[in-house]
TrEMBL record, chain A:
This is DUF917 domain-containing protein. Residues 8-162 form the S-Me-THD N-terminal domain. The lineage of its organism: Bacteria, Bacillati, Actinomycetota, Actinomycetes, Pseudonocardiales. Residues 165-362 form the S-Me-THD-like C-terminal domain. It comes from the Bacteria. InterPro entries: S-Me-THD-like_C, S-Me-THD_C_sf, S-Me-THD_N, S-Me-THD_N_sf.
TrEMBL record, chain B:
Pfam families: Hydant_A_N, Hydantoinase_A. This is N-methylhydantoinase A/oxoprolinase/acetone carboxylase beta subunit. GO terms for molecular function: hydrolase activity. It comes from the Bacteria. InterPro entries: ATPase_NBD, Hydant_A_N, Hydantoinase_A, Oxoprolinase-like.
Length: 367, 540
């Protein structure tokens, strides 16, 4: 499969769904991906089995603040100098670029990075969704070292950071990002193809594309948002939780901490409408949607993907854009199995985001 | 006395307004005339009829200002005609190559503006420090090249220009030194953060400068011919005014002034500053919300003829329901449908009550006994009144549901009905008991133009360290007030109407994006001396 101008819009739509309300809008980086494939040709999407075992997989992601990217649009070519640095450091060839975070704006951006670097894109990512932390990736659970972190900006400035722990790596990398003016591109968890086997979230690129295609087909066939969401739940073993109206968005100031995972917290109240009339849902959110509760019971929780769709436009609604009165359909999609193991949940389960809740697997809709 | 004029796609509406302040403003005369191709003729006709309608003893010298809202510039962009060949000079290298200028433009408009751009060094970081250094030779080469291609208008954009506009001004000066007649539009005059969207807005503006000169010359000439010496002001999309000199430089600021004027006029006529405005036309119903007398604006990007801009536009929800909407399956037992197609402006000839052959929503309203227009023919009379009422109730339900979607809080929300098609709506809507139909609602847009204020806005990323918030915000508010005063607001009348603080995720040092908007009353004394006026921020 290739990414080209014909399927990138659908892919971006899928990235927004997998963003679980976070990750930044994929629509913001879609034009960069389209421009990159127009300039360099389609990007081939490959599986690990197609690559030489001892060559490298290079994850790439935007680094810094989304409000800076919209102004200081990068080049997309940052991946070129990162690749050069990575190959020099490991003294091996990079066989494929990998998207660190499929959810949100990093999804389409990774297509641009691959196109500029002349690399194929691995059909995988590090999260299967969006998370705020560098270390909140499947490779961390699999024991792949995050270090070194290779960071680059548009001036071809490159910094390679080595540290003994994820905490120090993140601390140093964030300072480099600050020096870069809070916009750059970074690569961590560089691994061999052999190491990547079982350490990454497989199939993320094709999954995002498939999600976007299902939504586009639903629009084309004149289906409502609620039936489009039901089709997603059916195909991906998820659950359409309810159709609601947002009746309150409440920032939780006293619980916010300096840590990135928990520095923004809010509680959202959802009132059931139409066939869900009389139901009340409580949604806990940070950078992403973290948990949905009803009548004291947990309906869905991170790492499962909770996404809200605007019932009228059919678009996924990012956390910062939730406001009073919005009509939404709430969808939960199961997370990849690696996240559901204890070491995965410790990293990205509800408690990692400050919620005193235990994860329980999603009850899929009966099909 | 003031004259307010709204030049719409179909009608040119004009009102004569007495009173200097909001409290004592009243409508003295109001007229509706057809819009003409050249704008000016229609405006002159409207003024002529208006003055003929004015009370005895009224003198032209009593007119203190003429405010005009027009869709002329929007139409030029939508139709991609009469646009000035424009080049884009972006200061941002080595960054920003991921998305060159004009990315995502419809091919037709790209061609219409000449599809010419230059990426140059320059720009700032979010904290105002330099991204890279301006290269005068690079700019001189661009100037020579664009001059050779016959380009007369340039849009200059730079990374983080809203934080610091200096390099754009420097680049503008360098370009004009090389090409003396060059018109330059700078992106920092378009406020908001988001390089590509702001740059697009700047390019549209640069492509409209010739048309702006033409229109301003024609209008000022026409007013002089009509014996009116009062200053002319143009409506901006945010419900504030600009003088004609500003209008020549920033014509694109008039985009979407139509819906804004209509909503502000409706709010003013009904005496509520916080309300929903439902404008029912022939084909669509447009719903917007007024907060403190100003339309709530869209938060994200706005499409103008398929081009992404970050323009301040009123947040309007459109439904395919209007007085001319086609009604199907009304009497054959199937589910009755209303719209979205419509006979539109042909309602007075095609509606059943007007002797036509098409069942429209207006006919159903007549059958239900809700309104009496045209002739209640046998055709309409034989319709089941209960059925007609049920159709109207379902329509009202759809509109009420849409209003509910625009709500920002659960409190009571007064609703103001305007527009010719509003006869199809009952006097209360489900969940919305307070429905008002103000007098003169049919010329609400012209009234909106006449009561417009003068504004100043800024959008910055600023560091707000612990304990400095109040001081930083006070400084920014003062700057917004100063901008409003510089744009022609009467000192002392300026208020902060909007302040939006967003702490930026992933940025250190309490970096916060702050948007401030200030508005005040038009200072008629100052606006009468156009020669000495200093307008807002200006390109060097």
């Amino acid at each position: 499969m290739d990414f080209d101008k014909g399927n990138l819009a659908a892919f971006a739509k899928g990235c927004d769904v997998l963003g679980a309300g976070g990750g930044g809008p994929a629509g913001q980086t879609l034009p960069a991906a389209l421009h990159a494939v127009a300039e360099h040709g389609p990007v081939r999407v490959v599986e690990l089995t197609e690559l030489p075992d001892d060559e490298l997989v290079m994850p790439c992601a935007l680094l810094g603040a989304p409000d800076v990217y919209v102004e200081r649009i990068g080049t997309g070519r940052e991946s070129v100098v990162i690749r050069r640095q990575v190959e020099a450091h490991f003294d091996r060839r990079v066989a494929a670029l990998m998207c660190t975070e499929v959810g949100g704006s990093n999804g389409p951006m990774s297509v641009a990075f691959a196109a500029h670097a002349g690399l194929p894109l691995l059909d995988a990512d590090g999260m299967g969704r969006a998370f705020p932390g560098i270390e909140q990736v499947a490779m961390q659970v699999a024991g792949i070292p995050a270090s070194p972190s290779v960071l680059a900006d548009e001036h071809d400035r490159v910094v390679l950071v080595r540290a003994e722990s994820g905490e120090w790596l993140e601390r140093l990398a964030r300072n480099v990002a600050t020096a870069f003016g809070n916009r750059g591109v970074s690569s961590e968890y560089v691994m061999t193809v052999d190491q990547a086997d079982g350490a990454v979230v497989d199939g993320s690129m094709t999954k995002a594309l498939r999600i976007g295609t299902v939504l586009e087909e639903a629009v084309r066939d004149g289906h409502s948002t609620r039936s489009a969401v039901a089709r997603l739940a059916e195909e991906f073993g998820g659950a359409r939780l309810a159709e609601c109206r947002v009746t309150g968005v409440h920032p939780i100031k006293n619980k916010a901490t300096a840590a990135l995972a928990t520095n923004t917290r809010r509680t959202i109240l959802l009132e059931g409408v139409n066939r869900d009339d009389g139901r009340w849902l409580r949604l806990e959110a940070g950078h992403e949607y973290h948990a949905v509760l009803e009548d004291g019971e947990l309906l869905a929780a991170t790492p499962d993907v909770i996404t809200l769709f605007d019932i009228h436009g059919g678009e996924p609604v990012p956390v910062p854009e939730l406001r009073y009165g919005l009509r939404v359909v709430v969808l939960a999609l199961p997370s990849p199995p690696s996240w559901q193991r204890p070491e995965g949940l410790a990293l990205v389960g509800p408690r990692a985001f400050g919620l005193s809740l235990d994860y329980s697997p999603l009850a899929a809709d009966d099909v | 006395m003031r004259i307010g004029i709204d030049v719409g796609g179909t009608n040119t509406d004009a009102v004569l307004i007495a009173g200097r302040h909001d409290e004592d403003v009243r409508v003295v005369a109001a007229v509706k005339t057809p819009t003409t191709e050249d704008v000016t003729t229609g405006v002159l006709t409207a003024i002529g009829e208006l003055l003929a309608d004015a009370p005895d003893g009224f003198e032209r010298a009593e007119i203190t200002a003429v405010m005009i809202g027009t869709t002329h510039f929007t139409n030029a962009v939508v139709e991609a005609r009469r646009l000035t060949p424009t080049a884009v000079v972006r200061l941002g290298l080595p960054a920003t190559t991921a998305l060159p200028p004009l990315t995502g433009w419809p091919a037709r408009l790209r061609t219409a503006v000449g599809d010419r751009w230059y990426l140059c060094h320059g720009g700032y970081e979010y904290d105002g420090s330099q991204l890279s250094t301006l290269d005068p030779d690079e700019l001189r080469r661009a100037a020579a090249d664009l001059a050779a291609a016959g380009v007369r208008s340039v849009a200059v954009s730079s990374v983080f220009a809203p934080v610091n506009g200096t390099m754009e001004d420097e680049a503008a000066e360098l370009l004009r030194d090389e090409v003396p007649e060059l018109r330059v539009s700078c992106s920092h005059e378009f406020g908001r953060i988001g390089l590509l969207e702001r740059e697009n807005a700047t390019v549209l503006n640069a492509a409209l400068v010739d048309l702006a000169d033409e229109l301003v010359d024609a209008l000022t000439g026409a007013l002089a011919d009509a014996g009116i010496t009062a200053p002319l002001l143009l409506s901006q999309n945010d419900g504030t005014l600009m003088d004609v000199e500003y209008g020549r430089r920033i014509p694109a600021a008039t985009f979407a002034s139509g819906p804004t004027n209509s909503m502000r006029g409706a709010g003013f006529l009904s005496g509520v500053a916080d309300c929903a405005v439902i404008d029912v036309g022939g084909t669509t119903t447009d719903i917007g919300v007024l907060v403190g007398g100003f339309p709530r604006e869209t938060t994200s990007t706005t499409d103008v003829a398929g081009i992404r801009t970050n323009w301040r536009m009123p947040d309007v929800l459109s439904l395919g329901i209007g007085g001319g909407s086609l009604v199907r399956h009304f009497s054959d037992g199937e589910k009755t449908t209303v719209g979205p197609d419509s006979v539109g402006f042909a309602l007075p000839s095609r509606g059943l009550v007007f002797g036509g052959d098409t069942l429209t929503l207006t006919d159903v309203a007549v059958a239900a006994g809700l309104t009496r227009v045209g002739t209640t023919t046998a055709l309409v009379r034989r319709f089941d009144q209960a059925r007609a009422r049920a159709v109207l109730a379902a329509t009202a339900e759809r509109i009420a549901d849409a209003v509910d979607r625009m709500r920002t809080s659960p409190g009571p929300l007064p609703v103001v009905l305007v527009g010719g098609g509003s006869v199809v709506l009952p006097d209360t809507l489900p969940g919305l008991p307070d429905v008002r139909r103000p007098e003169h609602a049919d010329v609400a847009n012209a009234i909106g133009a006449a009561i417009a204020k003068v504004g100043g806005e800024l959008d910055r990323v600023v560091p707000i360290a612990d304990g400095t918030r109040v001081r930083v915000l006070t400084e920014l508010k003062a700057e917004a007030v100063a901008r409003a005063e510089a744009a022609g607001a009467r000192p002392g009348s300026v208020e902060i109407v909007e302040i939006d603080e967003v702490p930026l995720a992933y940025l250190p040092g309490g970096a916060t994006r702050v948007r401030v908007k200030a508005v005040g009353d038009l200072d008629l004394d100052r606006v009468q001396a156009p020669v000495s006026r200093q307008v807002g921020v200006s390109c060097a």
